[in-house]
Amino acid sequence: MPTLNVVVDQRFFLCPSQRVWTYSPPSYQFFRGCLEVFDHVRVIARATPVASIPERANELTGPRLEFLPVPYYVGPWEYARKHFAVQRVVRESTSLDGAFLFRIPSHVAFAIARGLRRQGRPFGVELLTDPDSFFTHGLSRHSSAVLFKPYFCRETRKLCGTASAINYVSGQSAQRANPCQPGAWSDTISDVELGPDAFLARESRPSPPAGPSPLVKVVTAGALDHLVKGQDLLLHAAAHCHAAGIPVSIEFVGGGVMQEFLANLAARLGLSSFVHFTGMLPGAAAVRERFLAADIFALPSRAEGIPRALLEAMAAGLPSIGSAVGGIPDLLDPAWLVQPGNQSDLSHKLLTLAKLRQEWPSLGQRNQGKAREYAQSALAPRRKAFYEFLREATYQPNRALPQEVSVIHAA
Q1: What is the dihedral of CA 222, 224, 227, 228, to 10 degrees?
Q2: Is a pLDDT exceeding 60 seen at residue 116?
Q3: Which of 195, 210, 259, 260 has the most CB atoms within 10 Å of its CB?
């Protein structure tokens, strides 16, 4: 009975009912593709007990999916306190049956992979983001995270260079920076798959506004737990547009601990009446409604993989601006790329796009065409081929599950 062990860096919530929940991908829906090829999926990740189901969270547990919890920690200092408990789970995990897939960067994945290499066991890798850009000063809520950048870069290159199969989720730039070994199976398959509902008909989009200097409605989306999406830069760019006589509003789709900071920044820039925070929305349909009401999408990220929000905005037909980082250059016209962290470049591009009202429909049409490359119908066969290779090249049967390992089954 082929089993796929998937090691992920996301943190999960464990309810008293033994059901597991998460705010960020992957959820159970993501693993449906794996379950077309493998009989079972076993997710290995950090989890913290909670008294009740978190509001608006997505469930991980489901039929044929197990969860092996790793002791919960956030940041390097909490990890240091729980080091021995984490290492116990790491050692036990290397004895599991089945194939292994590491979604990296992830310290737990690096540790388990070292154990597999000592055993001579093959494994697969999905590279979600290049740590060279992600572990940058100011991006993490933990100020010491940047000190670990050399470690994450080194271990990421090592895993990519020793994997039997690798999917460069974050695109071609990450592939160039972290090459695979000769003869390894490799592809660049996004883990963002757009369903038919994501592609809004062109006639459903409003016509570009007319009249003297009408308000330009800019939307961005992403968690507000840190400033990795460049939300602060976007506010400064909006202030620049106002100073140039082009009124711009900014809508932040998503919630998080940095909302108050951004609201205070908007007030200092004189933009309070032009800035709106939606908080966490209940689902993709609600996000699409916000995209439909906007004129421009902006994602000036300081670090990125293949951003779901940008792809969904492009599928909705929005002209878009994004940073030349991660997988964004694979998506946008170079004319609308900005240098990450460059406030002046972002201000110039946003002001330029705001003035090109009559070109918004054609720019949106171009973006929608590019987004169709990420439709479920286009990506599903490639992802299935990846899983099939993993099953044939890395599956290890007849391995006993250690008695010490306690997995959570679907309720």
Answers
A1: -30
A2: yes
A3: 259
